[in-house]
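CO-FOLDING WORKSHEET

Operator: S.A.
Ligand of interest: fe (ii) ion
Run index: 323
Mode: holo prediction, single chain
Checklist:
[x] sequence pasted
[x] SMILES validated
[ ] output reviewed
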Amino acid sequence: MAATPVEPAERERLQAGFDATIARADRIEPRDWMPDDYRRTLVRQIAQHAHSEIIGMQPEGNWIGRAPSLRRKAILLAKVQDEAGHGLYLYSACETLGVSRAELTEMLLSGRQKYSSIFNYPTLSYADVGTIGWLVDGAAICNQVPLCRTSYGPYGRAMIRICKEESFHQRQGYELLMTMMRGTDGQRAMVQESVDRFWWPSLMMFGPPDAESPNSARSMAWGVKRNSNDELRQKFVDMTVPQAEALGVTLPDPALRWNAERAHYDFGEPDWEEFAQVLRGNGPCNAQRMAHRRAAHEDGAWVREAATAFAARTAENAKEGVR
Ligand SMILES: [Fe+2]
Ligand SMILES: [Fe+2]
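OUTPUT RECEIVED:
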């Protein structure tokens, strides 16, 4: 994965070229020289993003067999399939940095790479399908739209398509919640209960406060990241509060109020100790998510073996001119 060693003078020239590309806000492409730390940071970030898409299929997949109507089932199936697609684009983007899909999977399964902590929370009612679309995909959009302009070409291009699909995910979630809010008292209570559970974990999706996010400054200097965690969290809150009002739900934060001076909403502090615990593997579903992912990987072994055998035979036939 590391670049080939180069002479100091040559290295300086390459570094200057890289810096100039970043300064022009141009893209770095797979064959361009890049510093090892830049490559490592990107592998970590893109892999974590890919793993999140794949693990993120589990909480909602939990409800596919119990969707309340054919229409809801079709929407949910399409959404969960999109997430699989996002994982695949991102694994492909990551492979252009010189790491294989098998290595990335192994790093997820061994716990050396992480996925977003939001997917370690359970989905307890069908309202959670709506809340995840509205809040979790909504937060993902805030995080991901700036990534369409990220400095690494394959990542930025993958993000453009992903963002288009994420906005469908957010809309279908909001539409589901709106339908439930127009329904019975029981349905309204179900929505409120779901929003109460997902609000704070959604705010945690932007990562720790800027003061405690040591890698952020470097990622911003490299143009990998375009906005700080706190900026994006504020943007999400400002975007979401009017949507909550239109929906008729209460966001579970007594400190939430409009601040005319700042022209932003003030809001309370998420429980960062809970965030740390979930990151350490102690969230409500960490063990279950990993066990399920591991079992799916083992169950799929025959597909990988068959595909490898087929590729080898095809290559053999091509050599012998057999069609
Ligand atoms: Fe996605
Ligand atoms: Fe999504």
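REVIEW:
The chain is about 65% helix and 0% strand.
The pocket of fe (ii) ion (ligand 1) is lined by residues 53, 83, 86, 162, 166 (CB under 6 Å).
[x] output reviewed
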